[in-house]
């Protein structure tokens, strides 16, 4: 396994603060969504990514518009970083006409091709062959764009992930597999779903490198991703990055995760990616109280505006239940 | 100008012409490359277009179709070959959940321009897993188009239409017809539009609605009935989704009697849908119940004795026509 050089890809103070902004925006968005679900204003289809933000920010930060992502149901933040506004994403969760799916689905099953976003279906793992298809076209065109394919440790057990990894390896596709290992596939703990400790070990069986990293360390995720992207751009093929993390909420907002212990949850919450990064930035003299307050105020305004946009957006037209069936 | 080609040669000619016309068209599948495909349909493509426009894939049907979805999202027009139509079940999710729903969930911002070619049907000593007729699985799924040519002429023209269509099209080519159906095929760009049936024989006493390999035995049965003074109209649907309701109804208005003939099993096959549509919209035109001659609700056996028991043929169709006109 390649070792991660933590400081290989330099980040300026402005960039570090931008990463902090994304981490906090995504956290705030998900926290607000959670409240909206409890208030009954957002009906369902909410799969909180709280606790896993470092993966979203560490992988997406620095991507080019013409680099593609195939994100998971928990990766709402990837849509934001790739350029969809918070208002449109909130409208999507409200199933309003102004959302990405025009109200047809509240989850992240949509996509925005011009921004390089290709959402998954509910069949977890099934988007990885699609990612391979996108990456195949980059290879055919000899462009140096890359595709990031996200999946969970649970979906790593599907045939689709196996088929996609094998295919990507055979053709040395510019594809980075991002495994968000949050230890539970719904209620199933990882030790009951696979006999190995690291999903990353599977990469070797396909003939490319896999690395298991701390998925709650945004800089570790960034460095590993940038390394994999550099190799992919250079025609060296795919890499699997397994990001160890934990989802704070249940599988969905309607799932009470009684299958986990309070001790386990407390232990993982002590590894919250946000304060870890905030302390690092303070320690590096990149962040002070004034800057932090400014970021937090900006985010509050943005989330409020997003909710207001979604609330005031029109409901979908009933006839849109049957349109866009065919091109 | 036209000349005689086999059904198989006509499919191959359509592939050559479309790939020369549009460099976004490429084929992929198991053994389609230098080997030329299990039935030889893709023979020669590899030599002219090279490895990546005639792409050999691992035995990974789901990945083959998922990769096609990804490529189509970048404006390519992949033609995925399932080595046998029976194997399409291994790629089912990518067709029905990924490709069929994509435009709908993307709010109309993308289209899935892919073709899945599948050699289907029995009477070729194929047994359980090399003989099936999976059309109704896909006709039943909104978002897909399904075509099933019966002549060499249509095999070429419908494949060209399918490749140029912006939607996922399931192209069902009947193995029994590959070398047995031989006939005139136009040179160059003649398209057979999707959704348009062909009247293979005109008649005024009864209508047979059929498609694929059942067209020839239907015509045989119509010939036999003509000896008894019964003139039977034979409609070749050619497209199953959408199917040409106007053509079927126009014939029914003339003959007032319809029998649907298909090689697919009876329950919820095309016959069920056509019969129900006639009941709903043309009940007053019927002089007899809509009848069906189909495969029984049973698997495709290997023994010729057993398979012939299940397959519809001219005798069974003639017998049904006699009952239909005597009603």
The CATH class name of the largest domain in chain B reads Alpha Beta
Evaluate the radius of gyration of chain B. Answer: 19 Å
Which structural category fits the helices and strands of chain B?
alpha/beta
Trace the largest sheet of chain A across and list its strands: 1-4-5-9-8
Summary tags:
heterodimer, A: 327 residues, alpha/beta, 5-stranded parallel beta sheet, two-stranded antiparallel sheet, 9 strands, B: Rossmann fold, Rossmann fold, 7-stranded mixed beta sheet
Describe this structure as you would to a colleague:
The complex is a heterodimer of chains A (327) and B (327). Chain A is of the alpha/beta class and 327 residues long. Helix content of chain A is 44%, strand content 11%. Chain A is built from 12 helices and 9 strands. In chain A, α2 packs parallel to α3 (76-82). Chain A is globular. Chain B has 327 residues and is an alpha/beta fold. Chain B has 11 helices and 14 strands. In chain B, the strands form 3 sheets. A 7-stranded mixed sheet of chain B has the order 3-2-4-5-7-6-12, with helices on both faces. In chain B, strands 9-11-10-13-14 form a 5-stranded mixed sheet, sandwiched between helices. In chain B, β4, α4 and β5 form a beta-alpha-beta unit. The radius of gyration of chain B is 19 Å and the shape is globular. The N and C termini of chain B lie far apart (45 Å). The interface between A and B is large, with 43 and 39 residues.
């Amino acid at each position: 396994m390649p070792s991660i050089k933590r400081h290989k890809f330099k980040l300026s103070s402005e960039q570090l603060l931008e990463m902090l902004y994304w981490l906090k925006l995504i956290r705030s968005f998900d926290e607000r969504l959670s409240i909206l679900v409890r208030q009954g204003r957002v009906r369902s289809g909410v799969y909180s990514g709280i606790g896993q933000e470092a993966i979203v920010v560490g992988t997406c930060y620095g991507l080019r518009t013409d680099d593609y992502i195939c994100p998971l149901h928990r990766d709402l933040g990837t849509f934001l970083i790739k350029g969809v506004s918070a208002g449109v994403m909130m409208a999507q969760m409200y199933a309003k006409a102004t959302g990405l799916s025009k109200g047809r689905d509240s989850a992240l099953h949509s996509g925005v091709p011009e921004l390089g976003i290709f959402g998954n279906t509910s069949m977890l793992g099934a988007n990885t062959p699609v990612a391979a298809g996108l990456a195949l076209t980059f290879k055919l065109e000899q462009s140096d764009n890359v595709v990031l394919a996200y999946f969970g440790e649970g979906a790593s057990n599907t045939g689709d992930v196996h088929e996609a990894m094998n295919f990507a390896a055979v053709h040395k596709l510019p594809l980075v597999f991002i495994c968000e290992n949050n230890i539970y596939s719904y209620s199933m703990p990882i030790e009951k779903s696979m006999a190995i400790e690291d999903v990353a070990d599977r990469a070797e069986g396909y003939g490319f490198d896999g690395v298991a990293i701390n998925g709650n360390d945004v800089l570790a995720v960034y460095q590993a991703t940038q390394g994999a992207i550099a190799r992919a751009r250079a025609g060296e093929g795919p890499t699997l990055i397994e990001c160890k993390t934990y989802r704070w909420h249940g599988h969905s907002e309607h799932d009470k995760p009684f299958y986990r212990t309070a001790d386990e949850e407390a232990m993982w919450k002590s590894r919250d990616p946000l304060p870890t990064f905030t302390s690092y930035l303070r320690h590096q003299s990149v962040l002070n109280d004034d800057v932090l307050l400014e970021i937090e105020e900006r985010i509050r305004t943005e989330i409020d505006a997003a909710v207001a946009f979604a609330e005031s957006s029109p409901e979908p037209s009933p006839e849109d239940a049957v349109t866009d069936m065919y091109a | 100008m036209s000349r005689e080609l086999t059904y198989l040669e006509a499919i191959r000619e359509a592939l050559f012409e479309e790939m020369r016309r549009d460099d976004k068209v490429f084929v992929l599948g198991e053994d389609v490359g230098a080997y030329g495909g299990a039935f030889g349909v893709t023979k020669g493509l590899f030599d002219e277009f090279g490895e990546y426009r005639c792409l050999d894939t691992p035995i990974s049907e789901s990945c083959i179709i998922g990769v096609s979805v990804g490529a189509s999202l970048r404006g390519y027009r992949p033609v995925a070959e399932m080595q046998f139509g029976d194997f399409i079940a291994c790629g089912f999710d990518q067709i029905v959940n990924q490709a069929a729903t994509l435009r709908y969930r993307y709010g109309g911002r993308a289209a899935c321009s892919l073709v899945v070619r599948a050699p289907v049907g029995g009477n070729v000593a194929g047994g359980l897993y090399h003989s099936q007729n999976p059309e109704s699985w896909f006709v039943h799924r909104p978002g897909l188009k399904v075509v099933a040519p019966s002549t060499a002429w249509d095999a070429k023209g419908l494949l060209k239409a399918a490749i140029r269509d912006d939607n996922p099209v399931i192209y069902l080519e009947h193995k029994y017809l590959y070398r047995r159906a031989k006939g005139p095929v136009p040179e160059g760009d003649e398209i057979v539009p999707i959704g348009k049936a062909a009247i293979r024989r005109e008649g005024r006493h009864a209508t047979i609605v059929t498609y694929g390999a059942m067209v020839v035995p239907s015509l045989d049965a119509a010939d036999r009935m003509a000896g008894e003074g019964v003139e039977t109209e034979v409609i070749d649907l050619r497209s199953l989704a959408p199917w040409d309701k106007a053509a079927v109804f126009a014939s029914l208005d003339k003959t007032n009697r319809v029998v649907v003939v298909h090689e697919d099993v009876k329950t919820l096959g095309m016959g069920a849908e056509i019969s129900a549509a006639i009941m709903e919209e043309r009940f007053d035109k019927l002089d007899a119940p809509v009848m069906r001659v189909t495969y029984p609700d049973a698997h495709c056996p290997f023994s010729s004795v057993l398979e012939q028991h299940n397959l519809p043929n001219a005798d069974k169709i003639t017998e049904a026509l006699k009952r239909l006109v005597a009603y």
